[in-house]
Amino acid sequence: MRHDSNDAKASSAEPRTEEERLRQQVEALSERVQQLEQEKRHYQWLAESTTDLISRHDHNGVFLYASQAARTLLGYDPDDLIGVSAYDLFHPDDLAALLSKSPRIYYHEGFYEQTYRFRTRSGHYIWFETTSRTRRDPATGELTDVLCVSRDVSRRVESEARRERLARVVESTTDFVLFCDQDERVVYCNQAARSLFRLDEEGASTTIAELLVPTSAQRWREQVLPAVTLEGRWSGELALASPSGEIPVLSVVQLHREQGGQTRLSILNRDLSLRLEAEAQARRHQEQITHANRLASLGELATNIAHECNQPLAAMGNYASGALMQLERDPDQPAHQLALPLNRINDQIQRLSERFKHIRRFVRRGSLHLAPQDLAEIIGQACDLCEPQCRHEGVHLASRLAPGLDLVMADAIGLEQVLVNLIRNALDACRDIATPPRPPCIRLEAYPLGSRECCVDIVDDGPGVAPEQRQGLFTPFVSGRKDGLGMGLSISLSLIEAMGGNLVLIDDGDPPSADALPPGPGARRPEDPDAPQGARFRITLPSA
After folding, report:
1. Where would I find the PAC domain in this sequence (predicted)?
2. In the Cβ-directed half-sphere of 166, how many Cα atoms lie within 13 Å?
3. Are 535 and 462 in contact (CB under 8 A)?
4. Fewest CB within 10 A of the end CB: N or C in the chain?
């Protein structure tokens, strides 16, 4: 009986133990389900909150699921995409690449990555970068679905395209482009630079200083690098040392700061050889034209200059004849009695010699040499050349100089040529007066303008410049005279501008412009109510 009772207790305990175990399993499973549900909601929240489009597709590319990012990226409601084939929204060119497994599609460890264009709801395309992975049935190996994560990379693609275009431009430009690291070693040079220096693309570990001539290399160390370090940029002229010889270049050096604190320099070099040669040729042509203008001016003045030279020659002849007559009368007279005629002859010879020296300097060919010059002396020399012709034609030539004139920065012969040109033009204008009320006059007025400039006004009694001629007054080959070449004013303006000054026509009838204002309170300008009233040309030159 005791054994029966124990067996009954054991049999009743086993169901309770099994039931307890099942109940615990159910509880554990319920807890696991809740945990999975929580994780599901969490991952679903992540999928719906991310800015990337997360999608699932079947083997035909049909959308089975699309996250909320479809709204912001494509303009589609996620539900609108369900049942739509993604292939229908591919750009045709990119779909062909996908279906043909183009090398542009990157594959690594089961993941596919492709950059392509995808059509939005508005009809335009954006660049997508999609990372996808296929899932297959373990038993059959059939494809069940494709999981994709896609993001808009339009900005990146456009930026890469811009960089690629810029790289092609840099590679194909005729300028010499170099990049160097923080140790000044060349890390890249474009095709033009490689051909010039006979280097490979990486520069063969050459330093920038090795590509410059010694003087430019010294300037690189002493000026360029400190300026680039301080301001981030420098531009100026250097000279490259190529195997074919020295090449002058205009260089632009730019500092680039990269992530990690590293720095690089880009050096853009433009060949100045042709420009410098053209400028030198232009200077030679200008000097030839200017010299020809001086010869032409002297040719027009030659008759009157010759007449002026005849006066001292006649005087010397008279003094020599008188001395010979004295000797004939008294051959044994002391030599000192001939001192007076001999001194007079010597004076006339010195006068004539100075005139010939002045003419020789005036017609001598040469380039401009700026130096401090005595303005009053140059005005006097120009008047000496022109005064005989003016007197011959009944025109009074005068100069009026304000006291205290400063020295000016100019080329003496060039400034004298300008003054001669303007005096000759004024003389031509005075010929156009039919019945002048008084003898026509040409006046040169010189006065300081403030403390930094001096002015010379050339005024005549002519009719002035016609309004229709003013606009092209300084244009080459434009002349108000029928027989004029139209080069005098053009050459004069070029010469004055080369000296750092200006030449303008002053018209009292028009409002004065900024560069033609009368002198301010600090200036001293001669005033005369009887001054000529015709055209007034004003030369402005910097004080020395």
Report:
1. 112-165
2. 7
3. yes
4. N
The pTM score is: 0.47
Are 499 and 410 in contact by the 8 Å Cβ rule? The answer is: yes
Tokens of 210: 């090795």
| Pairing state between β 441-449 and 396-401 | parallel
Q: How far apart, in whole angstroms, are the C-alpha atoms of residue 101 and residue 334?
A: 125
Q: What is the DSSP string of 391-453?
A: HHTT-EEEEEE-TTPPPEEE-HHHHHHHHHHHHHHHHHHHHT-SS-SS--EEEEEEEEETTTE
Q: Strand 396-401: give its sheet, edge to edge.
A: 396-401, 441-449, 453-460, 536-542, 502-506
Phi, psi dihedrals of residue 340, rounded to the nearest 5°: -60, -55
Contacts of 519 (CB under 8 A, 6+ apart): 447, 448, 449, 450, 455, 525
Contact between residue 475 and residue 492 where contact means Cβ atoms under 8 Å apart: no
180 closest CA partner among 212, 213, 223? 212
